[in-house]
Amino acid sequence: MKPNALQRLDATLAQRKKMWIPYLMPEFPVPGTTVPVLLALQESGADLIELGIPYSDPLADGPIIQDAATRAIQNGATLTKLFQWIRAARHAHPPLTVPLIMMGYINPILQYGIDRFLDDAKEAGADGFIIPDLPIEEAEDFRQKCIARQLALVFLISPVTSDARIQKIDSLATHFLYAISVNATTGTKKLSQQQAANVEEYLARIRRHAQKPFVVGFGIENAVQATKILELADGVVVGSALLRHLRAAKTPEEAAEYAAKFWQSLHQTDPQTAY
Fold first, then answer.
1. Buried-state track 157-179, b at ≥16 Cβ within 10 A, e below 16
2. Which of 198, 209, 219, 259 has its CA at a distance of 20 to 30 angstroms from the CA of residue 244?
3. Rounded to an integer, what is the distance from CA 271 to the centroid of its chain?
4. Is 61 a catalytic residue?
5. Residue 179: pLDDT above 80?
6. CA–CA gap between residue 90 and residue 243 (Å, rounded)
7. pLDDT tens-digit map of 106-164
8. Confidence of residue 57 (pLDDT cuts 50, 70, 90)
9. What predicted TM-score, i.e. pTM, was given to this entire model?
10. 103: helix, coil or strand?
């Protein structure tokens, strides 16, 4: 029987292992890369994959992801094609079996139509969504529509999020939380020693006030940083560093090879401690 979205995600979370999560921009750097890179990341140990929705005016994305989104659009990426690529990955041999969370902004979804978007995403094989510019105060209708379709909805936490708001976000997220490690756009701010200490205190605060698992992204560049984050959180998201390694690829095959090598390099000191 074909698993539904929440079965895939529930099964992953039930393992209670630290999650290695790549963020991928479709069709970057060249056309045809989306499916082979998704499959290469899974083969190389990704536990869950975030797949970006290219958008021309992002809020939280730094220059690397902005450039990747621009190139993705130039290479023909649209929501309709994105669903086709997800579907193709789910039906590949071997198929993509890890959960896939789509991450993007609300405007393209509104233009596509919320109900149509959610229906097409579910049919294609997506498992849920992260919408950075959809605050919890405006998300209830979208959240209920996700729940009705057995799709996950993940909300963001930042270092300035209050304890009370962490608890509120935790109560509304369906499966897990996404903690932004620094108040900056993605890929633009490397952590200093003092900032790293502040991150430790911040993540400990999330642990005290959230019941659900949480993953951490923004500013994570290498295996050492990723391993440190995984001592404090339930998953680590690496996006800009991965895309930086993909930029030189000239073919989909090269992109898949570069993605696999980079992702494998992150696992040199893979912690296996359960959360």
1. bbbebeeeebebbbeebbbbbbb
2. 198
3. 20
4. yes
5. yes
6. 22
7. 999 999 999 999 999 999 999 999 999 999 999 999 999 999 999 999 999 999 999 99
8. confident
9. 0.92
10. strand
Q: What is the pLDDT of residues 91-115, one digit of tens each?
A: 999 999 999 999 999 999 999 999 9
Is there a contact between 105 and 112 (Cβ–Cβ < 8 Å)? no
Cα dihedral sign, 73-76-81-83: negative
CATH class of 20-268: alpha beta
Q: Which helix (H) or strand (E) holds 205?
A: helix 193-209
Handedness of CA 73, 79, 84, 86 (dihedral sign): positive
List 10, 47, 57, 61, catalytic entry: 61
One of 47, 50, 67, 234 is an active-site residue; which one?
50
Give the pLDDT of residue 58: 60
Domain extent listing, the chain: 20-268
DSSP H or E run through 144: helix 140-148
Catalytic residue flag (residue 231): no
Give the span between the Cα atoms of 56 and 113, in whole angstroms: 18
